[in-house]
Task: structure prediction
Amino acid sequence: MPEIKALVSGAGIAGPALAYWLARYGAQVTVVESATARRTGGQLIDIRGCGRGVIARAGLAEAVRAARTRADGLSFVDAHGRRQASVRADGFGGDGPVTETEILRGALVEILHEATGGSAEYVFGDRISALDDRRDGVHVDFEKSAPRRFDVVVGADGLHSGVRDLAFGPGGGSLCHLGHYLSFWTARNTLGLCDWTEVYSEPGRTIGARAVNGNTQLMAFLSFRSAPFRYDPRDSTALKTVVRSRAAGMRWHADELIAQLEDTADFYFDACSQVALPHWSSGRIALVGDAAFCASPLSGHGTTIALVGAYVLAGELARAQGDVVAGLRAYEERLRPWISRVQRFGQGSGKTMTPRTPAGIAFRRAVVALQERLPLGGLLLRDQIRLSNGFALPDYTSYERTRP
Ligand SMILES: Cc1cc2nc3c(=O)[nH]c(=O)nc-3n(C[C@H](O)[C@H](O)[C@H](O)COP(=O)(O)OP(=O)(O)OC[C@H]3O[C@@H](n4cnc5c(N)ncnc54)[C@H](O)[C@@H]3O)c2cc1C
Result:
């Protein structure tokens, strides 16, 4: 494509992935990230079906395979720690409830940053403060850097996207609370788990732990049902207090996991929300990843749709040969039907993770036990597996200029 100048806001997963593909098609790419350095925090994320396809096309399959966390399966346990029903990772072609490719978010961020190496300019510790989409391009003001002009600006700045607010209005009516909150934190492996996850539920709340980092640590997590409440996403002290109070009185190993919140190296808290926008772009300004179409962290598809979104957005811009607006429209036309299906799936995922009643918990246990025992148990998860593989990746190789 003609050498367009692209600005990407956000250096999480979607941002560097987009920078990678845009550079490969010959664009000049700048990535601006509000954090002062790479945000390598976060816990395990899944790369499913077509997301693995994008990683393979980028030539990163080996790096991702080497960095992935071994996860053999998951058990639902009772208050005494007795395993009541289990799912194995290898049971469903790698795309079941426990996926074949689970990787610490930080490891994937590092791999994507390394891959963009010298081919994209990264500006840390700054953010976009104003966008003016004119005939000659988008004029961008930054909080710290001097103003610049770009042919296209893409917000890959997550669930609470700043670009979305600037381009579509604050809030934009686009954040839809799904009735759950989710927190992850790192803990010592005091449970002795070995490549395995244990999950314990009481009505309206679920706590669990997954062995990570060669079984030396746990990724602990709490999910709870709640009506929306206001919180400051940067105030981790206040958010840890929320997690402690919501887990208070839970049985199993809840107390020992919660006790480790105090000095955890890594803590994540967010609402399970979806982003529902009528359009993912306005003129030369577009959104991708959680900023455009977050499906809920409990959908298990957030990283997959971010990777596929970045691949299609860059590819359609390349195909449009400089007609940025047409490229952005084509990106949405191609991708939206599949993303809508993923979002519909995401709406129900919190309910499965955190049933409301004792009967709901018993029902989930019975379904999982059935999957374990029936030779064709995969049929029960057929729709989820099809969904992960439900988008045929277009081929954009003819537009490639370089391999970063
Ligand atoms: C620190 C962190 C930890 C996470 N941990 C988990 C986890 O444990 N489990 C899970 O399922 N999901 C987690 N997520 C979310 C998960 O990464 C995403 O749902 C998914 O991978 C889609 O990625 P994304 O690139 O669209 O968004 P994100 O990964 O959220 O990346 C967005 C990036 O944009 C940056 N940003 C935000 N606002 C601005 C702004 N105004 N200007 C410039 N940059 C901005 C952020 O600092 C971040 O680097 C985490 C996200 C973050 C940021």
Observations:
- Residues 299 and 346 are 4 Å apart (CA to CA).
